[in-house]
Amino acid sequence: MTGRPPTTTLWRPTGPGELALVRESRWRAWPPRLPEQPIFYPVLNEDYAIRIARDWNVKHDGAGFVTRFEVETDFLSRYPVRQAGGESILELWVPAEELDEFNAHISGRIRVVHEFR
Fold this sequence. Notes:
This protein is an alpha+beta fold. It has four helices and seven strands.
């Protein structure tokens, strides 16, 4: 019997521009990074994503969104967890050139779970 591989829940704080591109992908993929964005960094906990969306994206973009999505756990093992501050400020750093492969391992759809204006 074969089933879906185990997944890990990730969150991504984002602004309206990036979210529009995710919508264009039918909620299945993250858009390519801009030249000044060498990494894509999903975060490992919802609280951290909320803080970024609410405190940074709203200030800079007028709105902030928190997304939740699932990625195959085995695939994620190639990316070490990075502590970007306090104990709960955890991220994965995905090099921009690996984002297409990362997107291919997303299971299901990317969902908006919080919105701030």
